[in-house]
Every structure is written in C-alpha cells, then in structure tokens.
Amino acid sequence: MKSSRPVDKIKIASYVLSALALLLILIKGLLVALLAGLLVYSLVHLIAPRLGRKLSNRRARIVAIAALGIVIVAALSAVIWGAVAFFQSDAGSVHRLLRRLADILETSRDQIPDWMRNHLPTDVDQMRLMISEWLRLHAIEAKVVGERAGRIALHLLLGMIIGAMVALYDSTSIEHVRRPLAAALRERLLQLHAAFQQIVFAQVQIAAINAALMALYLLVILPMAGINLPLTKSMIVITFMAGLIPVAGNLISNTILVVVALSHSVHTAAASLLFMVVIHKLEYFLNARIVGAKIQASAWELLVAILVMETLFGLPGLVAAPVFYAYLKRELIDLDLI
After folding, report:
1. Of the ranges 26-30, 100-104, 138-142, which one carries the lowest mean pLDDT score?
2. How far is residue 175 from each of residues 44, 64, 183, 188, 207, measured CA to CA in Å?
3. Which residues of 97-108 are buried (b: 16+ CB within 10 A; e: fewer)?
4. What is the pLDDT of residue 1?
5. Do 172 and 59 meet the contact criterion of CB atoms below 8 Å apart?
6. Where in the chain are the domains?
7. Counting CB atoms within 10 angstroms of each CB, which of 17, 38, 224, 312 has the fewest?
8. Considering the entire predicted model, what is its pTM?
9. Where does 217-314 have alpha helices with state H?
10. DSSP characters for 47-94?
C-alpha cells in the first residue's frame, strides 16, 4: 500500500486546472473533440510499439507512425460516416423506427394488460407528442445535434487529428525535462487517457457481447420458434450503440425489443422481457468483471455517476460520466484518499 504523502502546491494547481478544463469542455461543447482525440491517441499508442520494434531508424518510425495516425483517422471517419448513413437510410431511420414503434403499440393495445395500457400512448399522434415533449425538455441537446451538426463533425475531425499529432509527438520525440507545472499537467492528462482507455475499450467489449446476444435472439432463437420480428437490423445496431453507455444503454435497447415483440404477441413480448432481464443481469456482471475490476468500481457507482452527470450537464454529461468518474477515482486512489 502506498504511504501517505503531502501534495505540493504545483500538484494542487494541476488538479484545479484539470478540473476547470474538464468543466469548460462539458459547458462549451468540446466533449466530442476530447473523446475523439483520446480515442485516436489510444489506438496509435496501442499499435505503435509494434512498429517501433520493427523499425530501428527514427525517421522511418516517424513516417510509419504518421501513416498509422492517418489510417486510423480515415478508418474512424469511415465508420462514423457509415453509422450516419445507416441511420439516415430506410433500414435504420430513427423517424421510421419511432413511427413503427408507435404503430406497433397502437395495434397491440388489445393484447396489453390494463395496468400497462394506461401508461402507453394511445396512437401515433400521442407518441409524437411525448417525443416532442422529451425534445423540449432536452432542447439544448436537440439544438446541438440538429443545428450544429456541422460544427460537431468539425470538432470530431479536429479532435482526431490533434490526437494523432500528439501521439506522433509522444511516440517519436526525445524525452526532455519539463518544468514542474507542465510535468504535473502531463501527469493529469496521462491519468485521463488511462481512464478513457480502461472504460472505452472495456465498454466496447460489453457492447459487442450485448449486440451478439441480441443478434442470436433475433436471428436464431426466435426464427427457430417460427417468429420473425421487424426492425431486426436496426435493433442490433441500436443495441451496440446504446451498449456503449454503461448500465443504462442496455435498458434503452431492450425496451425497444419488448415494444417490437408486442407486434407478434404478448407471449413473445414476455419472453423478450425475460431476455432483457437476463441480459441486464449479465451486463451488471460484465461491468463488475470488465469495467469495475479495472477502475475498482461497481456497476451502481457508474450508474450514480451517470445519473448525476446527466442531471447537471444533459447528454454530454451522460456520455462523459464513465470516463470522468474513472479518472476521478484513479486520482483519488493515487493520493491514498480512497
């Protein structure tokens, strides 16, 4: 166990500056750029050591790592473009999905118990009204996603480029002595990067497992029982995307699954609800084993962090909560405070 030690003024200053920087990132809408930069930085550092072992010449290593950064940025841009294209297509259109869900609820009302029916929209217009009310409550996020989509795309691209450039500098520059504050701030950045790497890579594993189980249920188990649900491709993609949000994301995707299952029968919806419960319990286990083990946090801690951050900062807080909480916990553990 680490021994207790006083924290000097320079280190305190680095903590304060880092906290202010993260707060400004949330308030000023720079979270997308930060996460994109951290992702590219992590991927380059994950692959670059293998290139370094094969290339002894420093200039060749610089060229190789620069090319690697370009390839990673291009690949991530292609993936993002593909995801946007999918959700704008007929197969993945969010508007089409919401309208189909409303139609399913409307046609399935006679199969739904009275206690549940009273809490569901009566028709498409009422569901549209509920969605409009939700968007009104989240007007800031809706405005950012809609009117400032181009700015978000620019932040995303610039963040990836900056991440690649920083990774190139770190991987090829000769280590030199830094002034005390610069060294302390770099230590904070490295802690944030480590927290991001732990959370994101682990959560991608969990999201992939959730999507694979959803695909198994929709494409194998239900067809074997003679049941073919609509919107299967959309639900699998949404399961993966929502699964990137710890704990809460699984509730989103599986709620959609239960509603769609109502289009077949109440029994199918009940079976899907049982599936949802099992997968939800599995995600708690996976979070505890994959995420919790790395940051020494349980699933309920992440859920509380997500709830608090979403309440304070809206959608950006929801996305940032797991990474920022992991970073905070790393710093507190490093100081022997918890």
Report:
1. 138-142
2. 18, 20, 12, 18, 38
3. beebbbebbbeb
4. 45
5. no
6. 9-334
7. 224
8. 0.69
9. 222-224, 232-243, 248-261, 266-286, 293-295, 299-313
10. HHHHHHHH--SHHHHHHHHHHHHHHHHHHHHHHHHHHHHHHHSTTT-H
